[in-house]
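Hi team, as promised in this morning's meeting, here are the two structures we talked about. I've kept the exact order from the run log so nobody has to guess. The first one is mostly here for context; it's the second one we should focus on when we meet again. Sequence first, then the predicted structure tokens.
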Amino acid sequence: MMKKRYVNLLLAMVSASALMLGSVSVLAESDSAKTESGENAEAADEKDVSTDKENTLEDGVYTAEFDTDSSMFHVNEANDKKGKLTVKDGEMTIHVSLVSKKIVNLFAGTAEDAQKDGADIIEPTTDTVKYSDGYTEEVYGFDIPVPAIDEEFDVAILGEKGKWYDHKVSIKNPVKEDAAETADDSDKKDDDKQSKGKKLKDLKLEDGTYETEVTLTGGTGKATVESPAKVEIKDKEATATIIWSSPNYDYMIVDGEKYEPVNKDGNSTFEIPVSVFDAEMEVTADTVAMSTPHEIDYTLNFDSSSMKKADK
């Protein structure tokens, strides 16, 4: 009988030890899980803070891309898909010039919310844009609140017919204007170096009639001039004969002087002075091909390395 009680007591002690070890193991696992969970939460918080810092712009003015989901609602081509982003006290607003005056209002949100009482409707500004061919036009512009960079958000537009439409837009690649100006200054210095080119005296050519390759840039890119062009050198001055690909140019301006065409039939032809070779020489040409005459800025580049005496 005593032996049986001893065995039962021993079994009870073993069972109690097992229960205690099990409890310790469960508690350890629980503590480990809590620690791991806490570490993950802390890491997530740190990631969110890091992301917030990356997405936060310091106060200032930026140039930024304005993307939309519509070919009818976008930045005017004269502004290269970009608008002016202003950041002040953490609030962001982008000003964009559109393609016309057909969009009369905007709303930062959905079309449904735009029609509710008290909706904060965005009124237009009248902006003047200048195209690459020198033509200017008045269009509507808007100041749009920006909730975040690189994230789509809702913007509703109101057309001339009084109907609201939903659209998605996003702001990308903001560049602070100071940085942009620095880049522009650098480009300008490079341009200044290139613009020096060569003067006629540097070429050391005798008087006579020459031919040289000439390149035209500017405008819409549709107009061209004949190349090679004839260049007459006389009394230390160079005069080029410029023949356009169109008969619609009625005068040119070079260094502030106005030049009339030297022909009455065929494509417009001008005799103009050449002030520099191997660099961009700025000229202006007036075209009557549009509904009203327009002065368009171009550059001509005369390649001195291609100059040769013209055949007699």
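And here is the second protein, the one for discussion:
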Amino acid sequence: MDQTARPPTATPPAAAGAYEASLSRSIGVGGNILITLSSISPASSVFILGGSALALFGTGVFWAFLIAGVVSILIAFCYAELASAYPVAGGDYSLVSRALGPAFGVATFFISLISLPLIIAVFALGVADYLGVAIHGLSPQQTALVVVVITTVTACFDIRTNAWLTGVFLGVEMAALALLTVLGFVHMERPLSSLLSPEVLDPATGQLAPLAISGLMLAVTQGIFAYNGYGGAVYFAEETKNAAHSIAKAVIWSAVITVATELVPLIAIMVGARSQTELFGSSLPVEAFLTERAGHAVAMVVMLSIALAVINAIIAITLQAGRLLYAAARDRALPGTVAAPLQAVSTKGRVPVLATVVMGAIAFAACFVPLDILLTATGSTLMFTYLFIALAAIHHRRGGTARPGYRMPLWPLAPGICIAALGLVFVVTLLDPEQWLSLGISLGLVAAGFVYFALYLRPRRNTHLLLLDAAPEETR
């Protein structure tokens, strides 16, 4: 891996109206989708978030994850339209900055700057749980530190290598989801119509009872979180061929595949379990179903494949994190002395190596933070990111910033429903005192972003936060 850095440009070429083409435009729609799906990790979402939802909400998971899937695809429409108009590296930060305004963009940057490395740490701390089925006595923290180092180094390889590598790992976890689906539908114990009435295990009686509307709303929020990550395709816009036309496809297909590969196995588990009361009463429902239908040996192999899926997700999220910091440095959203080295790319692979390493180092340090604190710190950030994306999609059309490219269907239904759904999530969060600290941290990050913009960036608007277009695409 060639880590020789290109000298960073002192000031982005404002006269040209576009950035210099620094990243390697070498992956197609398929490669982008592979990396994006890897960051979502549908298999680990089913086993961890889906399993938790089954225990808490029973058959309510069917309606909740179906509703969450519709909301997620509508949010994907917003991402797709914005990314088609602004095919610039940097993900949510870049889209919001250009379509909604730099103040909101900087607030989004603050959210992503903290949440991405913390999410990496959360995933890394969970790897030992799955490797533990074969290697006993693993320390979660020591395992996490090793995983973060390995994945950060891997993320510094060129984008095509990472697309191939994450694609191989993704195939393994998709095979695990296919196995769950087949086991459930081959051994159906009840019809699909049994899922239409949401029921949850009543601890007092040990029997199924109707799920309250409030519980269903909570389940929808968990479903939205489980599907999250399809917007990650935008981070690789400057490395995707013909991005102005293809990046929208990458976002939408990532969302559709994610919803299908998570919802269908969960349905199969609910109709294929011998006893729903035992399934919902298990501490690990998905693992319990797998052991029941396939045996302990197969379950162990699948658990190891989930460990690979989690590591794969960490690689993909580290790739995104590096491009976030690189894009912000290139925009001069950071002080000049900090921004200059962070916008450098390697000569051979054209990868933002230093920016990737810095984000990996933050994730490494976060592994020393207790897991419950990490979960609290990242719990509500998604709500604000999606809100800003929906508002950016509206302003993109109505504020005179609309450009040629993909146009979402049924405008303005998608952003309108997204905002309404996020309002519901906000209300549910406010009603749960256990979520107040998480909400407070997210609000603090947003406020810090606005303050940083007002006090530091706005007075320097002639030299900082220069939001230029993507470079013209060249054929390689």
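Starting points for discussion:
The radius of gyration is 22 Å.
The longest strand covers residues 199-202.
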